Predict the 3D structure of the following.
Amino acid sequence: MKILSVVGARPNFMKIAPFIRAIADHNCLGGDQIEHVLVHTGQHYDDSMSKAFFKALDIPDADINLGIGSGSHAEQVGKTMIAFEKVVRKEKPDWVVVVGDVNATCACSITAKKEHVKCAHIEAGLRSRDMDMPEEINRLVTDRLSDLLLTPDRLSSENLRQEGVAEKRIRFVGNIMIDTLEAQRAKAEKLNPCDIVNNALLEGQGVLTEKQSAAIHAGQVAVMTMHRPSNVDDKAILSGIMDFLMNEVAADMPLVWAVHPRTVKQMQTFGLWDKALALQNFLLLQPLGYHDLLRLNMSARVMLTDSGGLQEECCVLGTPCLTLRWNTERPVTLREHGGASVLVGNNVEKIRAEYRVALAMDRQPLRPELWDGNTAGRIVEALLRASC
Ligand code: UD1
């Protein structure tokens, strides 16, 4: 069996690493070998957004890089389809495996099916029901086309059933992100959170003061990531959130923000950058590596994020998480399902109220069913069975 798997952007890398390892484990057992070709579409290309993750997670270099880079959604999807079609025609895989919900996921699932190649989707069935999110469009298209839908939780399987997907296409396998978390947890635990912050502080921020270091060591630190267009592309929304963070959160404890390139660009465009850089306790960092962010998450008093993956990691680590969105495709991580996350959108009053609640909460780790670190092995088995 020949599998061609695809990654494009940062959140894909922690999903593909365990899958590649599980293929290698399968091949070590002897028997029918799986031939694997890794394609990177090149949507994320900065070292800190891509190469660093390959290195940290022991992902072998991609066999093929399509070099797509930045652009509008149509440009990214269109260019990816054109380049990937050539790869599929040359490589003639039995399966194309796509992960997550980025533009690469959608573009390559369409191309695979048009080339009559079977497609499997890892992390299928997630639904935010928010069609303003590009990722929701990617999920719907990818799931509609894929032959094998590998879901992370039972709610996602149920979403697919409600859309009329035949039972034989759905396999509940668990959350592959947690395979990576469990494989890397011990390594992250050994890191010193203050070293992480000092090494990643942006130019002009100096180094941590003794008071800040002591607070971070004591777990009195707010950790932040935010990059969604709905939060960072509108000046009033971005400046409202930043005012709250600067005036209130940074007054309580150091706030550590690993800033995505899109967010840096928007802060600069809106004239918010210099003030943010100058503020004491408001610590802007370069994008962090996997272990560094995992370590800071382990220490955080509270996480503020609009990322999908961090909601899941906070759930397993029990970090109180304010999800800066009005909806989530990952409801299993919410407090009403026993998780650590709460939706606060981008309304400052709501964020403030839930921030106060979060500060009063203890860590409450939750491990949803099959988030056990063994999902990748189940995926390889499912692919083998579906090929018989
Ligand atoms: C993409 C994914 C999103 C995911 C996010 C994680 C889609 C639709 N979105 O959004 O689901 O949560 O990745 O990071 O696929 N840039 C750089 N260097 C890079 C990559 C991007 O500077 O290596 C800058 C460019 O200015 C670019 C902008 O970031 O225009 C946005 O990048 P893009 O890949 O278009 O989308 P993300 O916002 O990263």
